Amino acid sequence: MSREDDILDSLYDLTIDGERDKVVALTNESLELGMDPLVVLFDALIPALEEVGRQFEAGTFFVPEMLVAAKAMQGAMDVLRPLLAKTDAKPLGTFVMGTVKGDIHDIGKNLCNIMLEGAGFNVIDLGVNVQEQTFLDAIREHKPDALGLSAFLTTTMPMFIPLIAAIEEAGLRDGLLIYVGGAPVTQEYCDKVGADGYSPNASALVRHLKEKMGIKASG
Ligand code: B12
Fold first, then answer.
1. Which of 105, 129, 149 should be mutated for ligand 1, with most atoms under 8 A from CB?
2. One domain for residues 123 and 203
3. Distance, CA 131 to ligand 1 centroid (Å)?
4. Do both 81 and 99 map to the same domain?
5. Residues with CB under 6 A from ligand 1
6. Is the pTM value of this prediction over 0.85?
7. Backbone angles phi, psi at 91, to 5 degrees
8. Is there a single domain that holds both residue 52 and residue 114?
9. Residue that is last in its domain, among 86, 107, 123
């Protein structure tokens, strides 16, 4: 096996195992060897996170495993991101994401962002405790394909209702897929607030979004 193939195999395994430092070192080595960052991303890192997502949905991996794998992926993405921006790789679409006003939980949101980014989306993260006006300004500025609203408290998830109403009133709802999620959110609540989609986890969000946008699954 060539050193390149060996690196791809190791990156896949080490990302699943959440070995951030080793993943970062190997990603750097891959670039020193002149490997294509897209190959590293699509042949090792993304398949690894997809496997983590599968294992999570199957109940064989739990949040801690998903988090360390996501952090390992994030480490590699920090190395690759500037180079990827230089390639001709067209993003699959733009996703604006934020945790709603009054809520500072961001671990679930960040996991979604990494998985979306890893799948090839351009992600604009508005952070936590995001005010209504900030969401409206971001939609106008970035013209995203989809908007994600994250809430982890039963007291903050009702924020979805005035937010979606404000987006409609501002004439920004057409052609925008609105996703809602976070620990207390359900499909039933998504239907109630008139959002387009709900996902209980990051990998399901990526799959659902690709389906809605007519993008074929990789692998
Ligand atoms: C860690 C944590 C915190 C941390 C947050 C740190 C951080 N940087 O995020 C800290 C300590 C700050 C915190 C504070 C509070 N917390 Co807290 N917190 C949690 C805890 C233990 C874990 C949440 C978490 O990050 N889970 C890990 C991620 C990965 O979760 P996940 O849900 O699987 O994420 C997936 C999905 O939700 C989905 N998803 C997430 N966002 C989105 C968005 C979209 C668009 C989509 C489609 C999907 C999606 O994809 C994610 C990735 O797969 C939960 C318990 C729990 N079971 O959720 C309580 C919990 C959410 N917190 C709770 C409470 C009450 C609070 C506080 C009010 C406590 C207090 N009295 O101060 C404050 C509120 C602060 C605020 N204003 O926001 C309650 C909420 C109860 C309720 N029904 O409202 C919980 C449920 C604990 C409990 N059982 O009582 N908290």
1. 105
2. yes
3. 19
4. no
5. 63, 102-109, 111-112, 148-150, 152-155, 179-184, 198-202, 205
6. no
7. -60, 150
8. no
9. 86
Q: Which domain covers residue 26, as residue numbers?
A: 3-86
pLDDT value of residue 88: 60
Are 184 and 101 contained in the same domain?
yes
Task: Please enumerate in sequence order all residues whose Cβ is within 8 A of that of 208, keeping only pairs 6 or more positions apart, or say none.
Answer: 179, 197, 199
DSSP string, 90-151: --S-EEEEEEBTT----HHHHHHHHHHHHHT-EEEE--SSB-HHHHHHHHHHH--SEEEEE-
Does 59 fall in a domain? Answer: yes
81 and 98 housed in the same domain: no
Q: Catalytic site residue 103?
A: yes
Q: Is 191 one of the catalytic residues?
A: no
CA of 105 to the centre of ligand 1 (A): 5
Quick one: which atom of ligand 1 is closest to the CA of 105? Answer: 9
pLDDT tens by residue, 89-120: 678 999 999 999 999 998 889 888 888 987 88
